[in-house]
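Same chain as my last thread, 242 residues:
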Amino acid sequence: DTIMDPSNRQTCKDFSWILRLAFVSCIGWINVGLVLTIYNESGSQAQLSLGWTDEEKKEYGPLASSLIFGGAAIATFAVGILFPKSSRRWLFIISDLINIVGSFLTLNPNIVIFLIGRGLLGVGLGFNYFIIPLYLREISPPEVSGRIGSMNKIGFSMGLVLSFGMGLGLPEIPVADNQYWKFMFLTPGILSLIRLPFFICVYKFDSPKYYILHNNEKGARFVVEKIYKESFQNKIIQDMIS
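reply #2:
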């Protein structure tokens, strides 16, 4: 049996450490679920409060939804090109900053600015959708990768549940002076504000694979020492280099 054999249950040094890092990363999956559904829940209320005319609702309502998918497609394509040699940590930071800006722009009564905000939220969605699964795979020993990987679906499901749950706070018939929708629209930004400090101040490193791709064995060893038991660390590094 090789050291990377998934049947080997002894390589992981501290599963709780990996689990915490994975949980922080998967806040992005909660955002994916939210961004995909929150406009369906609160769009009518937002349009009324923002003073959209019936003609504007017809013209721009569908566009507000499609911009999420357009932004996500562009981001996924771009990150697919950038990811192999880009800092995983900085991609997380950038996606959080994009979500924060996008969330605030969707509160603006100017339709163009509102739509730009929706497009940015789509870009943030695409970043998270692409980055998180690959990052979790890179930081997970084979024997725990299945459990860590399941957090992708759990995070996404949590986002859907949160969106639908918040939707219960909206009035059945939209009213002009109801501002609760603003809190719903800001939630992706709030979640990004929660995750952002972790990647700036706590998890100030990338995955071992990133460091190896950049010929930084010292950086790779630093992360490997956090993930794997000491007796396996040298072999893990050697396998990555080869």
